[in-house]
Structure formats: structure tokens, C-alpha cells
Design goal:
There is one protein chain. The protein has 71 residues and is mainly alpha-helical. The longest helix has 27 residues. The protein is elongated and about 60 Å long. The mean pLDDT is 86. It comes from Streptomyces viridiviolaceus. Keywords: Membrane, Transmembrane, Transmembrane helix.
Length: 71
């Protein structure tokens, strides 16, 4: 922890440089990063479906765990 001030300065310098580069990129290409609501709905539905399937599998395995021990 001897050089905490130097590390903090370097980290802040890196962060501010990255932020400035990102802002410059946004000014250069203002349409970058647009995402439609349809895409968001599809992703949410896909993740929800995957969680439901995983939960169902876990429930079935938990229910029949004693019966599966002999296999």
C-alpha cells in the first residue's frame, strides 16, 4: 500500500481517458447502441424460458432423486 496515491491517480487517468474516448465515439457515431424494444422482449422471454426449463428439471430431479439412486 506504499504507492496508493500513484495507483489511484493511474486508475483515475485510465477511467477518464476511456470515458473521453467513449464520448468521442458517441459524437462520431450517434446511432451506435440503439436497441429495439422487440429485441429486449425476445431476450427477456428467452432467459425466462431457460430459467423455467432449468427449474422444472431441478424439481423433477429432486422429486425422483431417491428412485434414481439405483440406476
Amino acid at each position: 500500500m506504499k504507492y496508493t496515491a500513484v495507483r489511484s491517480y493511474r486508475a483515475m487517468h485510465r477511467l477518464t481517458t476511456r470515458l473521453e474516448e467513449g464520448l468521442a465515439e458517441m459524437r462520431r457515431r450517434p446511432d451506435r447502441g440503439d436497441i429495439s424494444i422487440t429485441t429486449v422482449i425476445i431476450w427477456v422471454a428467452a432467459v425466462t424460458g431457460a430459467l423455467v426449463i432449468a427449474g422444472t428439471i431441478a424439481a423433477v430431479i429432486a422429486k425422483y432423486n431417491g428412485n434414481l439412486n439405483g440406476i
